Amino acid sequence: MSSSTDRPEYQYSTLEVDVEAQNRNQNQYAETTQASQLPEVNQNATEHLNYPEVVGSYAPKKDIDPTLPEAVNVAENEKIPAGGNTTETPERRICGMRRKIFLIVIIAAVVVIVAIVAGVVAGVVTRRNAEPASNPSGSPEEPEGSTNNETALFASTNLATANFTDEFGNENYLVAYQLNNKAIYLSAWNSSHKSWVVSPVVDGKTNNLGLDSVRQGTALSLDVFAYDNKSRDIHVYWQLPDSGGLATIKALTYTNNKGISTELAIPAANWVDSAAGNSYISTAGSSLASYGKQCELCNQYTYLYWQTANGFREANYVNSSTGWYSDNSIIKVDIEPPSESSPLVQAHVAAATTNGHRSMNLFYRATTSALSQIVNGDGRYVGHYLGRDIGPKATIAAFSTGFNETGKNWPEPLGFQVLTIDPAVDDGVQLTYYKGDTWTKVDRRVTALGDCRGHGTMVANHARRIYCLVGNGDGLEIVEYAWKGNPSDPSTYANYDKIGTVDTNVR
Known about the structure:
It contains two helices and 27 strands. By secondary structure, the protein is mainly beta. β13 and β14 form a beta hairpin. The longest helix has about 35 residues. The chain is elongated and about 165 Å long. It starts with 18 loop residues before the first helix and ends in a 5-residue tail after the last strand.
């Protein structure tokens, strides 16, 4: 190795080629001998010796800076990792997709699903709306009597009816019924006005009577108490919802001083509580029957009849001083008591003279299945069998003809028309009548009332009008019939004219 005194004027690095290391590398790494020509670091260098610098042959001579490198402190957030790339927190992914893209996909899917559902619903509605036009059976579009309409007729409604003749000689007919929402309504007809008027009785909004105060499928009864031919009260009775197989009877009165009208709707607020309400309890399946004074030679008071576990009971109202009264005993007669949930109807009879006999007549089914009668008149509770058996689900409707007079050859003798529908037997509407002190069972159908057979719901009033529930679903309606028979000619007893449909549309 040459000494530093032999160097030329320019000073260079003290780095020299280690010949021994070169020979050693050539022997150990023969395949990399080309690399041995490169300069190597002198392991003996110190701080007093210069480190290698690259200079050209033209570089001017100058002093070499002997300063060694120093460590520099750098803030953690300014550090650059090896490779020169910053390390970023990886973005969260859902199902392999970036979160933002995943949300966009979900929203798009929801929009597509909603569009599909809307299209299907629109298609179904369109098809349903189009069906009536193409229906060969001629089924009507959804009418106001639809079963989906809360204010349409309830398919299992009971009916009640009454009538009176006003001071102008006009005939007035009343029909009570229940709607799908359990409300009770009244339709009235005046022969001079010649149209039905619909009025609420219990609408769920008036007189602190909610719709929960009416039993679904409640029994109904309706009567008119006539003070004279100008003034009268109307009474309506129904049941509260069942409680342990029993139902409390409710009652309202529309008093004469409120202005009873059959030509205009009467407001529900004009009905007032009757003391008969909340005073008596019937079995849940009991029918209700009532009577109000009809004429001067008729029974003079107000009566209510219902069924208990042991038989029929009666309550009566004489005047405001005595109020409603019942001795809590059942009606006892010399025939069998009523069957469970027996049908019960009332038909009154007037006398034509003071020598005649006025009475209320109850018709029902006895435990023996016999169609039976209880006469509440001068003799008080006299029982009769009518010569016909009926089933436990039978319907009864009855009205009287003539007068109950004691004189011979009276021109309008007492008569009864009793109609029955027995769903257990396919024999339509059957007639049993009373004429000449004899009950007669007719073995042929009353074909004019054939439509009444379907629902088996039928009532009659003293004006000899029959009301039946006819049709199903959207076509459910109350149909009115008028008896055209001649009381003196039994061959005409099955003659009825169909008058029309009772308007029950709530407006």
